[in-house]
C-alpha cells in the first residue's frame, strides 16, 4: 500500500543542545535517517516541516534524495503537523505517517505494522509497555506509587488516513498544543490501535541520548565493501603547465579538455561514482554545459565524495595511476597525495598516486596524450 509521510523537524531541540535534527548520527544527519526509512518503505511523497530559514539545512541534509519537499511549520507541534498535511498531494483515503525527526532509528517492520492496523482502526501508533516501576515524587521524596498496568510508552510515526486526521484537527476544541495526533483522533471519536513499537525507536531528547543511539548503530549497522574503477584520457596541446591530481605541474604542454582536464581527478571521480553505482562524471557534469568550462576538477571529486557520504558511506582508500612519458610525476607525487587526502578527508596512507609509461607504445608512448586510471574502495550500509 502506498502512503505519504510527514516528518516534523521544526523544533529547536534545546534539551539536546540545540538543532538535534541537523546533528550527525552514524555518519549522516539525524533527519536523514527517518527520511530514508520512510522513502525506502514506499512513501510516494514526503513533507519535511522545518523552522523558518532552515531551507538550506534541509537541502544539505537530504541531498540526493527525491520525492520530498519542505514547508515551514508553526510555533507548536499541532501547527507544524497541520502545515504538513496542507502540503500533501495524496487522496483523502491514503495513509499518512506523521513522524518526529528526533526518532531516527525507524525500522521498516514498524511502518508495515502501522499501515496494516489502519484496515480496521481510525489510527495507529507504535507503543511499548511500561516495564519500570513508577513513583510519584515531591520535593525530592517519593510521594506515591503509580500502577503500571495498562500503561504504554507512545512512539512515532503515528498513522491515519488523511481525511481522518484532517477532520479530527478541524473539530479540535481542546488545548492549542495537543500532545500528539492520536489524542486528536481519539477525542474526535476515532479508534486508535496500538501496535508493537521498537525499543530502538528512542527519542533523542538529551545529549546522552546521542551516545546511546551511536552505540546502537555501531552494533546494528552492517556495511558492505564496494570497489569502483575509473579511467580518463586527455590529449596534449600548447601550454605552460598541466593539472594532475589537484596539483599544477610546470610543463611545456597542457592537457586539453572542457574543464581543467585533470585526468587523475577525473578518473578518481569516476571510481567513486562507480563504487556507489551513480553513473559517471559526464552524467553529473556534462561537457556540453558551459558552466563547467575551465572548472577545477576539485569540484567534481568533492561532489562524488558527498554522494558517498549521503549514502551513509565512507571512503576507505584510493589509488591513482598516471600513464604518460612526460612530465615526470615523482617530484610532485607527495603533493598530489596530500591534495587528494585533503579533498577526501582521508589519512595520507589511504591515498596512493603512481606513474608509469607504456615504453613508447600507443598514444601515450607517442606523446599524444595522457591517461589515468583509479580504483576506490568505499563502505556503505546494507539496507535493513
Describe the structure.
The chain is an alpha/beta fold. The chain is built from 12 helices and 19 strands. α5 (162-170) crosses α6 (181-187) and α8 (263-275) packs parallel to α10 (297-310). The longest helix has 14 residues, at 207-220. The radius of gyration is 27 Å and the shape is elongated.
Q: Would you summarize the structure shown here?
A:
The chain is an alpha/beta fold. It has twelve helices and 19 strands. The strands form five sheets. Strands 1, 4, 5, 6, 7, 10, 11 and 12 form an eight-stranded mixed sheet that branches. The protein has a five-stranded mixed sheet with strand order 16-13-19-17-18. The chain has a two-stranded antiparallel sheet with strand order 2-3.
Amino acid at each position: 500500500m502506498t502512503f505519504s509521510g510527514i516528518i516534523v523537524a521544526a523544533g529547536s531541540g534545546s534539551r539536546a543542545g540545540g538543532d538535534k535534527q541537523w546533528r550527525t548520527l552514524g555518519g549522516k544527519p539525524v533527519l536523514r535517517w527517518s527520511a530514508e526509512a520512510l522513502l525506502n518503505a514506499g512513501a510516494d511523497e514526503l513533507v519535511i516541516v522545518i523552522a523558518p530559514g532552515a531551507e538550506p539545512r534541509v537541502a544539505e541534509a537530504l541531498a540526493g534524495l527525491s520525492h520530498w519537499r519542505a514547508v515551514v511549520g508553526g510555533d507548536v507541534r499541532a501547527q507544524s503537523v497541520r502545515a504538513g498535511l496542507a502540503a500533501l498531494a495524496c487522496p483523502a483515503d491514503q495513509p499518512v505517517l506523521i513522524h518526529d525527526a528526533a526518532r531516527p532509528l525507524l525500522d521498516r517492520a514498524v511502518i508495515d505494522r502501522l499501515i496494516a492496523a489502519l484496515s480496521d482502526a481510525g489510527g495507529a501508533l507504535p507503543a511499548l509497555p511500561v516495564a519500570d516501576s513508577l513513583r510519584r515524587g515531591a520535593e525530592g521524596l517519593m510521594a506515591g506509587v503509580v500502577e503500571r498496568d495498562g500503561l504504554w510508552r507512545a512512539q512515532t510515526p503515528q498513522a491515519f488516513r488523511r481525511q481522518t486526521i484532517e477532520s479530527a484537527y478541524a473539530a479540535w476544541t481542546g488545548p492549542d498544543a495537543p500532545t500528539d495526533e492520536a489524542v486528536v483522533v481519539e477525542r474526535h471519536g476515532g479508534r486508535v490501535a496500538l501496535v508493537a513499537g521498537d525499543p530502538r525507536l528512542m527519542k533523542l531528547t538529551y545529549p546522552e541520548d546521542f551516545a546511546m543511539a551511536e552505540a546502537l548503530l555501531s552494533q546494528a549497522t552492517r556495511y558492505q565493501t564496494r570497489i569502483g574503477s575509473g579511467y580518463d584520457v586527455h590529449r596534449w596541446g600548447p601550454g605552460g603547465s598541466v593539472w594532475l591530481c589537484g596539483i599544477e605541474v610546470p610543463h611545456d604542454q597542457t592537457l586539453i579538455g572542457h574543464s581543467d582536464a585533470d585526468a587523475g581527478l577525473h578518473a578518481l571521480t569516476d571510481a567513486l561514482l562507480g563504487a556507489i553505482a551513480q553513473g559517471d562524471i559526464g552524467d553529473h557534469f556534462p561537457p556540453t554545459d558551459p558552466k563547467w568550462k575551465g572548472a577545477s576538477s576539485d569540484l567534481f571529486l568533492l561532489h562524488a565524495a558527498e554522494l558517498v557520504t549521503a549514502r551513509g558511506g565512507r571512503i576507505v582508500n584510493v589509488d591513482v595511476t598516471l600513464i604518460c612519458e612526460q612530465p615526470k610525476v615523482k617530484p610532485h607525487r607527495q603533493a598530489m597525495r596530500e591534495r587528494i587526502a585533503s579533498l577526501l578527508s582521508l589519512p595520507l596512507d589511504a591515498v596512493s598516486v603512481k606513474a608509469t609509461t607504456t615504453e613508447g607504445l600507443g598514444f601515450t608512448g607517442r606523446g599524444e596524450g595522457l591517461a589515468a586510471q583509479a580504483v576506490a574502495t568505499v563502505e556503505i550500509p546494507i539496507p535493513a
